[in-house]
Each structure stands twice: as C-alpha cells, then as structure tokens.
Design goal:
Layout lengths: L2 E5 L3 H12 L3 E5 L11 H4 L16 H10 L1 H9 L3 E4 L6 H4 L10 E4 L2 H9 L4 E2 L4 E7 L2 E7 L4 E3 L2 E4 L7 H7 L6 E6 L2 E9 L10 E4 L2 E7 L4 E9 L11 H8 L12 E2 L4 E3 L3 E6 L1 E2 L2 E2 L4 E3 L5 E2 L7 H16 L7 H15 L1 H23 L8 H12 L4 H11 L5 H5 L4 H9 L11 H8 L1
Parallel strand pairs: 1-2, 1-9, 2-5, 9-20
Antiparallel strand pairs: 3-4, 6-7, 7-8, 10-17, 11-14, 11-15, 11-16, 12-13, 13-14, 17-21, 18-19
C-alpha cells in the first residue's frame, strides 16, 4: 500500500481520501483552512476562505448518491444522522407527470445538505492536517516525491493527489519545479449568482429545482435540518440585474416567479451572497502523449470545473476519485509513468464527456441569457440546443420526457443516450411546439420593473 498526500479537504479531496484509506493506503489530507467542527455547528462556526462555494447553494445529485451508496455507505449514514434531507427527484414531479411512479424511479434518490455540513461529515475519521499551506512540489527528474509547506517542512509521498479545486496552484508549482505546463482549455463561464439561505417549514416544490426564464434562471434547493437555498443565476455582463445584491430587491424579483416565490417565506440565514468570476476549465497533465510530471495527479475541479448551477461538481469529482482508486488497484505508484498515462486516458474516457456536455450547455445558456437581455431571440445553428430546450419544456407534461430530463440532470445518462431511445427527440420537439420559457414568470421588462 502507498503513502498518499491529498491536497485540499473539500468534497472531492475528502472523498478521495476516504476511498483510498478504505483500500488500505496511508492517506494524509492537507488543507490551509481551520479544522471541521461537529456537523451540527458547521454552518454557524466554520469559515473556509479557501473554498469559493463553501456557503453557497448546493445539491447532491443522484449520481453522487448512487456512488456513495455503493462505495461509502457509512458517509450517507452519518449525513442522515446530521439532518441530511432525503429526497427522490422523481417524487417531486407533478402527479400527472409522476404517473404513479416507475419501478426504476429509485435511481433518482439522493441525500443532500449544505456544504459545511457535508464536509464536516466527510472529514470524520480521516487524518486531516489543517492550517497547512502547500508552497510547492518536491520534484526529482520530473517526478514528484512530495510537497513543500509554507513553513519550509517537506512531506514525502508515493503519490500526490491535487484536489485543490478551482483555485488549484498546481500549474504554478509545476512551472516552479521546472516541469512543463499542463494542457489547459479555459473559458469564462460568464455567470453570476445571487443566493440566500433560509430556515423554516420546508417549502413545497411546485416546479423544477432549476427554472429557466427570460434572461435569468432560478435555483431552489432543499438542504439539511429544515434549511434551503434560493439563487438567481444571471449573466455577469447584465448590469441591471446587479440590483439583486439588495435583499429587498432580490425578494421583490423572486415574488414575480409564482413557482418559486414561496421559497423566500422562511427565516433568512444570510443576506444576498454573490458569486462570480467562475471559469469552465479542462486541464491535463499529459501533453502530446508525454506526462508533464509523474507522481502527481489532479482530481475533480483541479482537473475540470464547470458552471455550478447544474450542480455536477460533486458527482463528477466523486466519479473521478473512484477512477483513481480503481487504477491504483492495478497500477502501483512506483509504476509512475504508466500510472500518469493511464489516469489521463481514463479521465478522458470517463470524465471528459461529462465536462464537454456541461460546457456545451453553459455556452448556449449564457448566450441565450445575453440575447434575452438584448431583446433578441437566441437561434443558434446547433440543432441540439433546440432539442435540449424542447426536452426541458416537454418534461413539464410528459412522463417519459420528465425522466429523460432527470436522468441527464442527475448525471445518470447523457443526452444522446436518452434522446436516441424510442424516437424521443422528435416527440419532445412536437410537444414543446417552439415554446422557450414554459413556466410562469415575468418577461425582461417585468423583471426590471420588479427591481426598480
């Protein structure tokens, strides 16, 4: 078994450490932020400046739940004991769309919570060195042998796993050590989020958890212990919507959306939290068929990160961690070159399609929002976007379309897989009939009037 250092005690770093520890590896997690308190006090007392989304809206998708139930069921038990909210997403569909339920609807089960509670639960039982900043890598002949801490101490390992998230400094560390630069694609996601948390009697679900409207989307996400989150998702270029920073204007705007307005009826736990400056990014440590360095891998958001409004980060990160765990069962860290190459190959096969699909959605949705704000109709040449939007509309009334849409949004299947079944693509286009925004809500002028 190997000595492994995991950099970053976020959701993916902790999950990676749990999986590798369960396989018998000696794992130490390094994190610069304070240690996790008990889950019951995590929201109020834990501050994690190193994590961009720490106090923002979160949901754990069914793909994450399926993997956890198979690989780390004890985590789910602890999360339930900490007040996690168990929900079946198919069970939230309107009765006429739920259609009495289907035998395989249990695939849409999940257990969700606010991120501080999730991380506090995951950290239990792990060796986590907190308040420790990694300053660089120890490298010999392009092989990483450990890390150098800010205070000068050196920690050695058979493998270093970077789970540093969106802000990962891995490229800078590799450059400082004289290694080549990773291959990287990066694009400004373009979205800005205006979110709040509430507590009280849990609001009934009257529409999709992610609702698309003219120039804006609305997220309504249940969480643990009778709490929930609501967020507006807009274009970062949309200056008039920056008025959503004001809690009164935020509430006035939400009141215009009948299927979401009642989600502000609880006791506010926050003002309006704003999150922006996010990027879609794909990174590979194998360039031109050659590893930039061996002895180090990037997992989760350190390797690929996308727009958070689809909620896919935790599921993709856990799947990526499972991919690494499986590879280490057949390839020793001492086989450094083989490990680096095979991990890149499996990442490309398992993770990259999910990243590409999410990035594709991001580019179209942000362009659609900006077209709405400019008063024009978004009509791209990509016919797949028309089909995707038709599926979203048809899912509000058709049981098969609803489950297809849920399977895609839950990261249980890809759009080509579900749309190819039973001629669904043609059927949803006929059902949608060209409608773009089927749910009640204001047009652009009505939204701006609410803000003013």
């Amino acid at each position: 078994m190997a000595d492994i250092l995991v950099i970053g005690a976020g959701l993916t770093g902790l999950s990676t450490a749990l999986l590798l520890t369960r396989d018998g590896h000696r794992v130490t997690v390094l994190d610069r932020d304070p240690p996790a308190p008990a889950p019951g006090t995590a929201w109020e007392s834990w501050h994690r400046p190193g994590v961009t989304q720490f106090r923002f809206a979160h949901i754990m998708l069914p793909r994450w739940h399926t993997l956890m139930r198979t690989e780390l069921p004890g985590v789910l038990d602890r999360l339930a004991a900490a007040g996690g909210f168990a929900v079946n997403l198919a069970g939230l569909l309107p009765p006429e769309v739920r259609d009495g339920g289907r035998p395989d609807d249990d695939r849409f089960d999940t257990l969700t919570a606010r991120r501080p509670v999730l991380e506090a639960v995951l950290a239990a039982g792990l060796t986590v060195r907190t308040g420790v900043a990694v300053a660089g890598l120890e490298v010999r002949d392009r092989h990483v042998t450990g890390v150098r801490l800010a205070g000068g101490d050196i920690l050695t390992a058979d493998l270093v796993v970077d789970c540093g998230g969106r802000r990962s400094a891995l490229p800078a560390w590799l450059a400082a050590a004289g290694c080549g630069a990773p291959a990287e694609e990066r694009d400004d996601a373009g979205f800005v989020y205006y979110g709040r948390h509430f507590r009280g009697p849990r609001p009934p679900v009257r529409g999709p958890l992610l609702q698309h409207h003219d120039s804006v989307s609305v997220l309504t996400l249940p969480a643990d212990n009778d709490t929930w989150a609501v967020a507006f998702v807009a274009s970062g270029h949309d200056r008039p919507l920056r008025a959503l920073r004001d809690p009164d204007r935020w509430t006035a705007a939400l009141d215009r959306y009948p299927l979401a307005a009642h989600w502000s009826a609880g006791t506010p736990l926050t003002g309006v939290d704003v999150m922006a400056g996010l990027a879609d990014r794909w990174r590979s440590l194998v360039v031109g068929g050659e590893p930039v360095a061996t002895g180090v891998v990037a997992v989760g958001d350190s390797a690929c990160c996308t727009n958070p409004s689809l909620g896919r980060g935790a599921a993709i990160g856990l799947l990526h961690a499972c991919t690494l765990r499986d590879l280490l069962r057949e390839t020793e860290p001492a086989e450094a070159d083989k490990l680096a190459r095979r991990f890149a190959e499996r990442t490309a096969a398992v993770i990259e399609p999910l990243y590409r699909a999410t990035y594709w959605f991001d580019r179209h949705r942000i362009a659609e929002m900006e077209a709405d704000a400019a008063g024009v109709t978004y009509r791209p040449d990509d016919q797949r976007w028309a089909v995707a939007r038709a599926l979203y509309v048809a899912a509000l009334s058709d049981p098969e379309a609803a489950r297809a849409n849920l399977a895609i949004s839950s990261v249980l299947a890809t759009a080509p897989e579900v749309l190819a079944a039973n001629g669904l693509a043609a059927r949803v286009s006929a059902i949608a009939g060209g409608v773009r925004y089927p749910m009640p809500g204001p047009d652009r002028a009505g939204l701006l009037a609410a803000l003013n």
